[in-house]
């Protein structure tokens, strides 16, 4: 599903990614652990097209974002980018929008879905996430775990082939991390691939099919910490 080869990224003189190779199959859950500053978030940002790499290839569902360091044209890039969802560490919900509005914004704007279709789809997702009674609430009225689920729902509304999570449990109390693990597992069972960054080892072991370690811009299979 996702194939990364020889990915490099520098910030000025700082080599942050030093040639990353990573393959994630359909329905597979890959978890990356490793010390602060190792380049994990930068890798996620490159995969999501929020940061441009300097060398290497990234391919999602046979669509290239970038091939041998050369980025595809806008249309092809956006098409590949659309297959990837990202859930930010701090959720980044739109504060002035209700839960339902948070979920329908991108499908309407990016996928050109009708208001009616977007709402129908969003309500299904919110039902699946156990948030049917919160659709008209605003983010500030939700608990941390509920906000987290809305953020996941917002990414799901675009029906991505790959979901990326940066520290999905860092803002949750320990009791809720098991819930997030169960949710991620059930999504993967339906064929969605997952790329997850975490510092939480017990969460990593609960959720991962494969664990990778990232240190000083180098990714290795297995948990070396
Ligand atoms: N926009 C930027 N400009 C310059 N340097 C950056 C930028 N973003 C990240 N860096 C540097 O790149 C390195 C890797 O950062 P990154 O955020 O990818 O680490 P991380 O593995 O996610 O760490 P953490 O576990 O603390 O979240 C760090 O040294 C950081 O200072
Ligand atoms: Mg990070």
State the gist of this model.
Its EC number is 3.6.3.-. GO terms for molecular function: ABC-type amino acid transporter activity; ATP binding; ATP hydrolysis activity. The protein is an alpha/beta fold and 225 residues long.
Name a few traits of the molecule.
225 residues; alpha/beta; six-stranded mixed β-sheet; five-stranded antiparallel β-sheet; 7 helices; 34% helix; binds magnesium ion; ABC_ATPase_HisP-typ; ATP binding
Count of alpha/pi helices: 7
Measured on Cα atoms, how large is the radius of gyration? 17 Å
Termini separation (Å)? 27 Å
**Main sheet: strands, sense, barrel:** 6 strands, mixed
| Beta-strand proportion | 25-35%
Heteromolecules bound: adenosine-5'-triphosphate, magnesium ion
Number of strands: 11
Q: Uncertain runs with pLDDT below 50, 5 residues or more? A: none
- Strand arrangement across the biggest beta sheet: 7-8-9-3-10-11
Q: Could you walk me through the main structural features you see in this protein, from its secondary elements to its overall organization?
A:
- By secondary structure, this protein is an alpha/beta fold.
- It has a domain at 94-159.
- The chain contains 7 helices and 11 strands.
- The chain has helices at 40-47, 74-81, 99-109, 115-128, 144-156, 174-189, 201-207, and strands at 2-11, 14-24, 29-33, 55-60, 63-67, 70-71, 84-87, 162-166, 193-197, 210-215, 218-221.
- The protein has a 6-stranded mixed sheet with strand order 7-8-9-3-10-11, with helices on both faces. A 5-stranded antiparallel sheet has the order 2-1-4-5-6.
- The longest helix is centred in the C-terminal third of the chain and has 16 residues, at 174-189.
- The chain is globular.
- The model has no long low-confidence stretch (mean pLDDT 93).
- The structure holds adenosine-5'-triphosphate and magnesium ion.
- The site of magnesium ion has 2 residues, from helix 1.
- Adenosine-5'-triphosphate is lined by residues 11, 14, 16, 36-42.
- InterPro entries: AAA+_ATPase, ABC_ATPase_HisP-typ, ABC_transporter-like_ATP-bd, ABC_transporter-like_CS, MetN_ABC_transporter-like, P-loop_NTPase.
- Keywords: ATP-binding, Hydrolase, Nucleotide-binding, Transport.
- Belongs to the ABC transporter superfamily.
- It comes from bioreactor metagenome.
- One of its GO terms (molecular function) is ABC-type amino acid transporter activity.
